[in-house]
User: What shape does this take?
Amino acid sequence: MPTPAHSNLHAMFFHFQFDDLRRAYRTTIASFEAAADSAEATVRRMYGFGPDEPFPEVEYDEDGGPSMDWGELIGEIEHDAHSSKALVRTAFVIALFHFWERETNRWQQVVGKTYDHQATMLWLIAKGRTPDDATLRELELVAHCAKHGAGRACSQLFGLRPDLFDLTSAQSIPNDSNLLITDQLANGFFDAVANSGPNLRSPF
Assistant: This one.
């Protein structure tokens, strides 16, 4: 049975580590947003154009194809930044779930066992907490779907939140490639974890 001092340390380290994870997420996302927003400035700097200098007309090669389309180049840089941002969101959501899994198993003294969502929710309620049951369950399923692809987690998540999948093809099935992890969804997961764990006024 943890002593009060140990319980306070658990709460303190939980929030220190959580804050580090969320800070890293926000910083990385902001860097890719800045890259997308500054795509035109990047092209101007790379090719030596002034801030108000008009881009030259589109250049064509001898076969009639465009050899340099400035708008297309800017669009490619923006697209690459947004694609990287999506990968970052996915990676951090997976990391966030594993952080939650590790910490809750430690609190319950079941380190090394598979995360049991329902048992964890009941344990937190018994400790006087009000965990965000639905959102934390979605976090678990999103993390497993993103990590393992089509299968039970993706199917269960689709049953709960079909809006999280872009099934544009009639042949599509819920899987990691059509899973939609938005900024709003990721931020909601971070909020749920922060608000469902211990705090220094009421540690476990």
